[in-house]
Structure formats: C-alpha cells, structure tokens
Design brief:
- This protein has about 250 residues and is mostly helical.
- About 50% of the residues lie in helices and about 0% in strands.
- It is elongated.
- The mean pLDDT is about 75.
Length: about 250
C-alpha cells in the first residue's frame, strides 16, 4: 500500500481547499478525527503550509469530487511504482543522533541480562555493529569503565515486543541445540505479557519483616513451662528464701 507524503500538511490543504468531512480526511491521512478538527479550528498544525496532493500526484481531483458528493466514499493514495518494495526493504536500524551515545549502555545491558542473544540480534535491536558488540562483550571497549547497563526499551532504541521476540527466538534456538538452561535464565525468557499475567507473589506484612527465620523451639518452651509449674506450685514456695540465705544474713549482722 502506498504511503502518503507529509500527511499533516496534506490534511491542512484538504481542510482549506475542500469540503470533505473530518472522517474522510482523517482516514486518508491516517490521523485522528479530532486532530483534523483541531486543524480546522486552528489549534493544531499552526504555521504548517498546506501540501497539495493533486499537484504532487498523490490524489486526483475526480476522487475529491466524488468524496465531496458522498461522505461514505474513501480517498485512496495513487500507487507510486518508484516506492514499491520500500516496506520490505531490510537494512540496519536507523538510530537518531541524539540516542547514538546511549547504544553502548544498551548493548552492555543486553549482553549482561540476555547472554543468549546473538550479535546479529543485538545489532538489529539497537542498530549497532558487531565489532562494537564484541568489544563490549570482551570489555575492551575504550569507554567500558564509564558504561552503565541501561534497558534499550527505556532508552527508546527498540520496542518491548521486539526485545521479547528476539529473546524467545534465542531461547527456542538454544533449546533446539539441547542446551540446559538454569532457573535464572528461564525467568529472563518470560515476555512482558506473560509476566503481567502472572499472579502476584505474596508479600510479608511490614510489621513482621525481618522475622522470617525466627522460630520457637517446642521442646524449650515445654521445659520452661514444666520448670515454672514445679518451682512455683504455691505461694509459700514463691516467697521462700534460697537455702542458706538466713545464715548469710546473720553473718552479715555479726
């Protein structure tokens, strides 16, 4: 399917030069209907110059006329043979200049927490080169002492769904090779959707935190109960002085 060039500018032109409904323009430009209403009210795309889709061979006047006469008619972008196959083109991921300095941190995070990922997978996720990944794996990178591992999803270098897919693919490949994974490795292979669907782990009330290993021995408690019952069976035994206590008092008086 052909893609529209400058959709917001095209929406501005259609709002200013046609009587199309907001929904028709929104469907054609792949925008929200409220955004089109905002353009008409002057709250959105202020200062954006309209882009004529007819002069730029993206739309025909006959289509606009038919859509103005019937609100149910949908506009379609004219196919461009020069743009065919653009969606399926494969190549390295483009990383904006503002985020390229964060790639080493994301590579270190992937190497540390997902060692099952291959260099090709990491390169595809964050848009880097294999020599850079190898240098960080071997800790020979020139700035390795200052690099802190940061999640590439948090940095905006890839999507969580892409990371989950790469991890699941690496896990399947590892299982097919017959390698045994540890429990920690299995936990790392859980996707975000699976982790969100899990039951929450029971938490210890804050009042008894730190007492998880505190236990009472039944034998000791029984012995103490028997001792207390035998020693203080009646009031006289409770107030009775220790043996030899009277002699000590008499000697102290002398």
């Amino acid at each position: 399917m052909a893609k529209l060039l400058h959709p917001k500018a095209t929406a501005v032109w259609l709002v200013d030069n046609t009587t199309l409904s907001f929904k028709q323009i929104a469907d054609f430009t792949d925008m929200h209907e409220l955004e089109i209403q905002g353009i008409a009210d002057g709250d959105v795309a202020m200062g954006v110059k309209g882009f004529d889709p007819i002069a730029n061979n993206q739309l025909e006047q006959a289509q606009i006329d038919a859509a103005e006469a019937d609100p149910m008619v949908k506009l379609k972008v004219k196919p461009n043979k020069a743009a065919e196959g653009e969606d399926t083109r494969r190549g390295p991921r483009y990383t904006p200049l503002s985020k390229r300095q964060d790639r080493p941190a994301s590579i270190l995070w992937l190497v540390k927490f997902h060692p099952e990922l291959a260099d090709a997978q990491i390169s595809k996720l964050v848009g880097t080169t294999k020599p850079t990944i190898q240098a960080i794996r071997e800790r020979t990178h020139w700035n390795i002492s200052n690099i802190q591992p940061i999640d590439p999803v948090a940095l905006g270098l890839c999507k969580q769904s892409e990371l989950d897919a790469a991890v699941q693919k690496a896990a399947a490949k590892k299982a097919a090779a017959g390698e045994v994974m540890t429990d920690d490795e299995r936990r790392k292979l859980v996707s975000t959707e699976q982790s969100l669907g899990m039951d929450p782990e029971p938490k210890i009330p804050s009042q008894i935190e730190g007492l998880e290993t505190f236990t009472l021995s039944g034998e000791d408690s029984d012995d103490e109960d028997e001792k207390s019952d035998s020693d203080y069976a009646d009031a006289e035994s409770f107030f009775k002085q220790p043996a030899g206590g009277g002699d000590d008092d008499d000697s102290s008086r002398d």
